[in-house]
Amino acid sequence: MVFDIIVLSALRSSPAHGYELKRRVQRPSFAALSNNSLYPALHRFEKAGAVTHAVAAQDGRPSRKVYTITELGRGLFHDLISTLPDALAGNEEEFLIRLGFFDEVSSRDRAAILAARAAALDEKIAQVAALIATRPEREGTDWPSVSMEHLLSTLHHEREWVTGLMDDEEGTGHVD
Hints:
Blueprint: H1 2-13, E1 16-17, H2 18-24, H3 35-48, E2 51-58, E3 61-69, H4 71-81, H5 92-99, H6 107-134, H7 143-170
Antiparallel strand pairs: 1-3, 2-3
């Protein structure tokens, strides 16, 4: 879903052709956007009515498709940033992309997204803690345990951060 959010977001500012979209897209993971993922997504959005295209002629070069987001596409974008399904809540990029658009969603939706992320982190913390608890004692540096302890610390740190965001959200005293 993060890919859909990114592409639709990039089209919200103005219509664009594929190459321009690739230049606009910024991902928290820094993963490159390829034609093999962009054009099938644009085609899928067109079939769904979320995007339209017009053919723009160019002097001395092949014409190209310029894509425009529709009102249906704007609604789809809003729906995507307003929810974080449990199946995606453990994915850091899925969470962070929605967090980046928190100013565009209701307080209720922000709280639900934060709660989903918190639950996913709690589950990861429990899994890693269980793995650490079952590891046998080893002499010398136990590198697997070192890495798991670091992961556990990182998860706890993020969980505290999300708790702070949840507290801030509750402290607003209103529901949009």
